[in-house]
Design a protein that fits this description.
three-stranded mixed β-sheet; Hypothetical Protein Aq_1857, Chain: A; alpha+beta; single chain
């Protein structure tokens, strides 16, 4: 399961409203090959279910992971930072054994 912080929830709701996405949209979180540490995070908004999708809900936000990504992201917390060091979603992944300096890729 992936959880979200209150700041991430606020940002997700802001994006959903700004893009006029209806209640059929959810947050799709995935892991892809790439990045300086080997695997990178991907976050999108989607409204189409794919075979093998795993759905969770936290703080009223529907979150979707494909089965492969679930293996890498189980227990991960999605946060949002709007500080001076940069804005954007951050993944706090307990499964990552190493992350790159920018925080956008990891390895297990």
């Amino acid at each position: 399961m992936v959880t979200i912080t209150d700041k991430a929830k606020e940002r997700i709701l802001t994006i959903l409203e700004a893009e006029n996405y209806d209640q059929n949209y959810f947050v799709r979180v995935a892991v892809e090959s790439g990045g300086c540490s080997g695997l990178s995070y991907k976050l999108d908004f989607d409204n189409e279910e794919k075979k093998g999708d795993q759905f969770f809900e936290d703080k009223g936000i529907k979150i979707c992971l494909d089965i492969k990504s679930y293996l890498y992201l189980a227990g991960t917390e999605l946060d949002y930072s709007d500080g001076l060091n940069g804005k954007g979603f951050e993944f706090h992944n307990p499964n990552a054994s190493r992350t790159c300096a920018c925080g956008e890729s990891f390895s297990v």
